Amino acid sequence: MQFLLALLRHQLLAAVLGLALLIVVRWLYVRYAERPKLFWPLAALPLCLGLMLTGNAIVALVVASEGVLGFFVRVGVVLVALGALAYWLRIFPHRPLVYLALAPAGLSLILMLPRFALDTTAWYPLLLVDGLLALVAAIDLFSLPRRKSFSVERETGRVASLGQTHPVTLMISNYSRSARFVWVRDGAPPELHATPDEFQLALAAHSRALLSYQAHSSRRGAFTLPSAHLRVRSRWGLWQRFFDYEVASTIHVYPDMKQVSEYALLARTNRLSLLGVRRTRKIGQDNEFERLRDYTLDDNYKHIDWRTTARRQKLTVKDFQANQSQRLIFMLDCGRMMTNLAG
Known about the structure:
Largest sheet: 6 strands, mixed
Shape: elongated
Low-confidence stretches: none
Mean pLDDT: 79
Helix content: 40-55%
Order of helices and strands: HHHHEHHHEEEEEEEEEHEEHE
Number of helices: 9
Number of strands: 13
Radius of gyration: 39 Å
């Protein structure tokens, strides 16, 4: 205990030791975050000592600093605290907190004028405003939900067609006892264009919500959606926190085979003319009869059909269609996804 009291008198040494303990806690969190029964017994004592030593050094520094130096010290303390929240817990100030912080910031600039800079008592109202703002922000900070308060599930097909929309559904669950306003964004790669790319919704307590969007790919390949991103704000809206949920899915984008099936359907129903396909007749000299028509001067008299001529009382000739083999076209896909070795 005497060693701890002596350490508190040396502010610089206490701050260095406190930061070192907090770094140890961060390492324990990264290593044992999924095992809370092991994490808290190991991290409780370093966390308390680190917060006490660092907090004592910060308070002593703020109290000892006055005037312009005190202004920059307070700004530095606020930036370090915000950086620690962002690095450790992914907590960031929301717009309302920034607007509230403009009031003491403007007051600080006024007190830096020569007529107020030498008056130490003029800084007391600013300290009061800073304290009230810090208290309100701290109370609202503890209203942020934990990671376990939400869960995200994704449903999508494994195969998509090139150039066609592909439906993707996200299910967001809120397990907390209070309603939450959240922003949801799926971790789709840039090749999969999501429409819309972000959702904003209010989740009631103990409720679920289904969010659907359309993914559109402009090139083939296998694309992985590793996670879904969720952003939630605090009760008073002063803070926002980011969560990443691992819900890996893979979508394989292939050439659009639906168009081929449409062509096959039109061919079976003899409606290829809708696509601009026209059949051209080629008159030949083979034995494959094609039709009867009226005789013209340049026709071969051997092709006159005398029975039809006698019945119609008009010269009629036979037309024969050229008997030729059908033309077959083989199409081989030599793209990047089709060059793997088989077997």
